[in-house]
């Protein structure tokens, strides 16, 4: 018994001890890996998460863990992924396709390019390779579920599945039934936030994870002595496995910059250790950055819990805190607020070196754009620091103003002088450059300063956002960057400014007026503050050379970076690197403004101190420009021609050698043999380069222009304007204009008194027209203030003298215009001022017109100064000459180029000054009959071709160039005016002359009587006599007569005979001619013609009687009273103007019938030949043409609508004219219409036309059933039961082509034609012909619509009319014929929808 109790005790004790032992595993702890998450999302967004809950790290490669995927119920794995790496205890391992999205890939431990699963594919996790042990499965191997296993969110398709917390082992049986919801929780498509972490409860126990904490075991470090900071990471629990801990890095210190080593954010506590240390060593930099902190914070992970999460260490800075920063020194002003004060330890990074100092910039700027972060340190000798050095500078704040006593208007440069410089560190990165323009600081593009006054002491607002001068001051000494610089000046090639280049940022996107070639143009209130000067000074260019690219205006450069500075009147950017050239494609212009025989060209060209001492290439180049680019102007004013020994200051003043060299070079270049005119100045009295004696002079081409020489002009003698018989004339030509006037005294300090150029006047002739030209070179702008100076706006000291000079020239021009306001006057030259300036406006008041203002704003420039394109060279002309301007061009060949022949662009104007016109004219023949034709011809010379001609006079004139054919000239002596003009334009000339033609009248009349006693029988029998009442005999063969008539029920009028003619019946020819368009009382005419054998109709003689006979081919009736030419008088011959006579086709007697409105009016009358019920539908039909137009039979279609009463095989028959003359077609209507399901369409098969006032005759046709069945016509649309005889039937429809001209088609509301009397407008004359002064008419069928009655005479005039607003069923009215003689009138009766016209014959 004791042993049993003993065993029980020990068992209980063991159990108790077991319960007291700390456990690292959960109840039912996993023994191997299993799938913990499954993602089957959109597209390639798939992932498998494997969880290690064993408590030990597992090496996947050593254990030969693999994933197998079985597709579509297969039993052989389609994809196998061999796993690598290690899974920590409590850790996860994510496998994903390489094409998954970034969120999944960020959490993936291994990726594969193999094909992944879909929702119906099984997945197996094996240990021990391809034939190893299955330790987990998703799905069922060997079974295809169709789309997915499970339902809803807990399914394998388009969902995320996570293993339940209570699931602690995998599904080792891969072939059993798989129900996801047993072990898995479902989530929506593309849920990825659970990947990378998993936990389990494994039967309800809480997992025991290590607790991780961090502390700063040495929290205080320092730059001085590189005193380190130490952080310690520690864990609780076992140490049998390494533990990876994640943490974040924060604080004000920069990781890897302010301390080393750089932290990765991951630390590992090795196996066997419960902690690890992180030792950080501060970097002793030169930056004044105060004390800085390092903050490490443990981030959550499934492998541990967090105890103490955050620790902080502090780095003590060892730099001295400055007394001031650079922006404090610069301030928001042009003068430093600390001027004269001592500053200590001012920090900065050296950005550029000069020979006497260096630029530095604070790497820690303030937020105020108005205060610069850069400054110049004046060391007086070459600085010892290098770019990138961090320094502390102590010294005195100063404002350096260059120029000494003459530089009072220069801006200052803020600097620290007498400096003490302490190097803190070297090789530092430079502060970021400030971008000027788009994407950075916007550059003002209108105002240099929008307030007037002293920018330093005047109390003006400092506004860098609006004012260019403040903008660049706010950037003084700072590094700046210019993106996409566009050159607005050529690179300066020599002198102190060599290498300087002006640009605008962003390809000029923000320039206000950008020239067509890429420059920027000044305007009255905008001198383009957006211009930026680039300078290579700090790059140490070679002596006498430069490093900046040599480019023309419009060149595009790569990004430019440099330091802002002020020098020599402008802000500039001192380049720290040289930009490269992207494009530089500007080419020299060739003008299109050349001279012609009638067009004068005048040019101005400043040739920039041309002297014989210049290289021959300059003469050659200038000559080529004049000949090729300017197209050899007729007159050329040259400025800055020096004397024969140039700048040698001696007594030489003549310039004949200078002129001669240029003229010879022009000839050698293929140009004309120019001559020149000039007047030598008094030595050293006309300014310019000392000793050079520059002057203005004229070149002219004597082959085209005549210079009017009048001697007497000297350097001091003034030419004047004389009035010679109302014509202005120069007293001296050439002559100087008021050369001793004080306006031409010194103003630029370059010589003694009276040293400004004097105007030169000359008188020229071109094509006989006089032109006065005054050449100028006004005093320069050198004394004016600089644009970017202390005083704003710039004071124009030199302008007063140019105003005086302009006044002298204006007064001289006014003395010319006072004599002849239409004089051709030009003043031109280098005026050294702009088109909007006061001096130029004084000249305009003469009045003159500045031709530069005829160009678009973006083309107005002749000169480029400091990147500003501007006009200082001008051509101004009088009003008379402006009207003759044909072209003006500034020829851009110099100012924008690095290889100019001068610093100015020439300009050229073209004026049309043609010689006077002369004209001769004549007529052929000059004597003719009124029916004849003459030709006027004109010949013009002089002026400018091409010429235009205008012919004015009686008759019909048909012009053709310089000739005109004239017909229809009335009798008598007729005068024609011929007007000729030369080329169109403001200077167009005209001239006229007259030509006389003698025209003899043809005076004929036709006498007529009708020898036929009946007006309505079958013939017309007129007797005619043709009388010549003129003074000239006429050949009868040139005469024709026309007898106008209508032919009712038309049959060709072929029986045309001459019974008797005194001139011989055989010599009279008759023919019938139909009219092209209907006329009053006529559809055609019988034409009488005469053979040559008929002889002549003598003057004041007649032809004798001509008796003729007209009849139709079938001799059917003709109704004469409605014929236009009919005259009912039978017993005497009377003049009949309705029979017209023609001489050579020209009407010489009578009046042709008036045209009438064309009218196509057809009418159908029917008569039913059997009763309402019969074995056939038998109808007689008459088609009448009641209009005035013929109708082609081939275009006619007649439709008769009926119901077939269900009879099959109905047949059409007709015996009209001859069998087959009518074609009939029975057409079934689907769907049926009211009272009609079929229509018979009848078409004539014969040719010809249904003429006006004619009918087709009676058409008989029959529709019958071969079976003899009866047809009920009472329900037929077109059947007309009433009245029994022929009457209008508008239910029979007639088409001409596709136009319906008669009848109403059957429709849904249609009714049968019977019982509709009066539906058609019916008009009856109660007596015709009418004898008396009234005509009576009866009207039916108006249908209650308003009626209008009009009686119209043969001339188309309404002689009387009546209106009936509400007519009765039958209306009867009488219209007055009082005052109307015998003849034909028209009665027109109309409603809004119908119209009828009847002829009324008024008898004697």
UniProtKB/TrEMBL annotation:
One of its GO terms (molecular function) is catalytic activity. GO terms for biological process: carbohydrate metabolic process; cell communication. The keyword Zinc does not apply. InterPro entries: CalX-like_sf, Calx_beta, CBM2/CBM3_carb-bd_dom_sf, CBM3, CBM3_sf, Endo/exonu/phosph_ase_sf, Endo/exonuclease/phosphatase, Lamin_tail_dom. Keywords: Calcium, Repeat, Signal. Pfam families: CBM_3, Exo_endo_phos, LTD. The keyword ATP-binding does not apply. It comes from Fibrella rubiginis. It comes from the Bacteria. This is Lamin tail domain-containing protein. One of its GO terms (cellular component) is membrane. Residues 1000-1154, 1157-1307 form the CBM3 domain. Residues 21-142 form the LTD domain.
